[in-house]
Amino acid sequence: MNINENYKNLNESYLFSTIAKKVSDFASNNPDTEIIKLGIGDVTLPLCNAVIEAMHFAVDEMSRKETFKGYGPEQGYDFLKSAIQNYYKSHNVSLELNEIFISDGAKSDLGNILDLFAKDNTVLVPDPVYPVYVDTNVMSGRKIVFADANEENDFLPLPDEKIKADLIYICSPNNPTGAVYNREQLKKWVDYALENKAIILFDSAYESFIDGKNLPRSIYEIENAEKCAIEFCSFSKTAGFTGTRCGYTVVPTELIFGGMSLNKMWLRRQTTKFNGVPYIVQKGAAAVFTDEGQKQIHENLNYYKRNAKIIGDTLDKLNIKYTGGKNSPYIWLKCPNNMNSWAFFDLLLTKIGVVGTPGAGFGKNGDNWFRLTSFNTNENTQKAMERFFDLFK
Ligand code: MLT
C-alpha cells in the first residue's frame, strides 16, 4: 500500500484547528481571562423562527407513516431547488432545476468538485485565500499559482494574461479580505476563463451581506458565465446553518469540456458518493426563502452588520487601515506598527483576550494583516473593540 504522499506537503493542521488549539491552551492556562472570539466565521444567533417552524413540521412528518421520508434525491428535493431557482430569478439569473445541487455546505463541495478535473490542471488562487482552496488541491497534487491580492489592487486581483490557469477560484465578497468584485471586474475574469477554456469556481457564500443591487451576488449575473463557471453557496452565513449544514452548488448544463457535461459528471459523482441532505434540514433551508424567512434572516444579517460597523468605527478612530466590513462580515485590517500577524494574534489574545485570525494563515500577502469577524454578539463585539481601542489608543 502506498499512501498519498501529497499530504506531506500540507501544514500539520488546518488553520482554524491550529487557532482553536492555541486558544484552548491559553484558556486552560488563564481561566480568569474572559475570551471573546472574533476568529472563525461562526454565527452566534439561533436559527430564525420560520426555519425552526418548518423543521418542527418536518420532524412531525417523519413521525407518521404516511409522511415519513427515507432516502431523498441525492441532488436535493425539488421544493428547495425551486426556492433557490426563484431566489436567483429575483436577481435576473435564470437556472434550470437540474443545474442546482443541494449539499451539506460549500466547503465539502469545493473540495469534492475536484473529482471532476484531471490532476495535471493548473489552479489559480488569489493570495490571501480561504485555505480550503489551497489545501484540497495540495492533497491531490495539483500545481497551484497565486494571484497577488494586496493593498495596491484593493485585494481584488484581475487576470494576468501571462498566467495560464485551468481552474480559477474566486470568492466575492471575499474571505478573508471582505473585498467585493464589481461587474466590470468579474467580466474580466469571465472573459479570461472563456479565452483560456478554464473553469471559474465561484464561492458566493457571503452574497447575502451585499447591500443593494449594484454589486453582483452571483457570477451568473455576468454574461456568458454559464459557459465557464460553477457557483458554490451556503446557508451557513446567510441563515445561521453552520451547525445545521446545508448549501448548494450550481453546475450549468452548458459546461461541456472534453466532450463531457460537467453537470452530468457532478450528478454521477453525487449519486455515487453522497446520499443527500436530511429532509428536515432541507425543509428548514426552503423556509429561508419565504417572505417571513427573508424578513427574519435580514434582521439577523443586520445584527451582524452592526457588529461590522462597531469594528470599522473603532479602526477608523485609531487610523488603522482595513478593507471589508461593508457588504461582508469580515474586516481585514493592517496590523499596527507593521506587526507580523501571528505576533499580533498572540498580542490580542494575551493582552485583551480577543481572538482573531492571522492574515498569514491565508497566504503570504496576509503576513501583516489580520481578520476579525462580525459574527459574535453585539455586546461581545462592543466589549472586544473597547479593549482593542484601549490597547492601541
Ligand atoms: C472562516 O472563518 O473562514 C469560515 O468560517 C470557514 C468556513 O466557512 O469554513
Strand-helix topology:
Layout: H1 15-29, E1 36-37, H2 49-62, H3 78-90, E2 100-103, H4 106-112, E3 122-127, H5 131-139, E4 143-148, E5 167-171, H6 183-196, E6 199-203, E7 229-234, H7 236-239, E8 247-250, E9 256-257, E10 260-261, H8 262-273, H9 279-287, H10 291-317, E11 322-324, E12 330-334, H11 341-352, E13 354-355, E14 357-358, E15 369-373, H12 378-392
Parallel strand pairs: 1-13, 3-4, 3-5, 5-6, 6-7
Antiparallel strand pairs: 2-8, 7-8, 9-10, 11-12, 12-15, 14-15
Helix pairs in contact: 2-9, 3-9, 10-12
Keywords:
alpha/beta; seven-stranded mixed sheet; globular; 393 residues; binds D-malate; Aspartate Aminotransferase, domain 1; Aspartate Aminotransferase, domain 2; four-stranded antiparallel sheet
How many structurally independent domains?
Answer: 2
Q: Radius of gyration, rounded? A: 21 Å
What share of the residues does DSSP label as strand, in percent?
15-25%
Report the sheet with the most strands, covering strand number, pairing sense and barrel closure: 7 strands, mixed
Q: What ligand species are in this complex? A: D-malate
List the uncertain runs.
Answer: none
Tertiary shape: globular
Mean pLDDT across residues: 97
